[in-house]
């Protein structure tokens, strides 16, 4: 499949040779591209969000040259449901990227000349529209829709008005899946944005801009109850954990095949699935919302054995053109070492997806090679406890 924006992505990332993308196994950490990452201190969800993001985008080189006259797709982070609250807090204060961050980003992109802005998420509420899912969290969806001239919403868990899924093959020699079938909205754009929350992950250690892209996978294909031969005609096909996290089954025969059918350890599978997925569907702009967040996992813990979940107030926004570099800086802001390997927080029980992404040549995790603009990491650090540290003794 042809990706018309791949060359643009590689140029922005600083990797000029397409041959490296075709054979990522040749790449090593020393050749992984670096990219500028902006940190903005932002204590509250109010007008400061717009001002802080505008300054950060300018520090990255300006939004206009990235989005002017282009279709922009923003993959949101709306995992779980609006009723999965921590200490009674609205879900956007702990788990989801906040509507203030979404709306400000949309407004700034509209001002920078974006032709069309599409908000995408494969949410958990069946075939309901993305707008209704947002509304169920008491969001003022119309404010987001009115933030720019042409703003669209799509639940990418199913085909909706599209005729067939778009195929994204993993370049090089992937370990997990040969490729992925996704909603065509992830293909039919010029700029791909991942908007994540600054959080831990129970299986992978961290969930930031790269892990957010796992939510692209439609449960019609990657749900545990998906049919054997073809995608389910509905989204009622179970969640993705059994298939992708644990390798309990393979995708339908219509989808690109699973390569690894023997590994079942979540701490191995997810840190390898995610970077390969990002190599198949590159990210042009990564945004991480850490104004308010939580520690203890990607969702509030309901099982005491999994450890405590605690609301946090880091007061920070992070953005960059390279998702690996952005996630490395975000990991450091959480008080962890992005160069850490398995056995060291936050990767006590998981391989590091940052390390594997670096090995694939997607970007560097070495802070010494990343230009950080705006606030320095030392001024933005808000120390999280890892999931492992929060588990009962």
Structure description:
By secondary structure, the protein is an alpha/beta fold. It has one domain. 27% of the residues lie in helices and 16% in strands. The chain contains 15 helices and 14 strands. An 8-stranded mixed β-sheet has the order 4-3-2-7-10-13-1-14, sandwiched between helices. The chain has a two-stranded antiparallel sheet with strand order 5-6. Strands 8-9 form a two-stranded antiparallel sheet. A hairpin with a 3-residue loop joins strand 8 and strand 9. Helix 11 packs across helix 13. It is globular, with a radius of gyration of 19 Å. It starts with 5 loop residues before the first helix and ends with a helix. The N terminus is likely disordered.
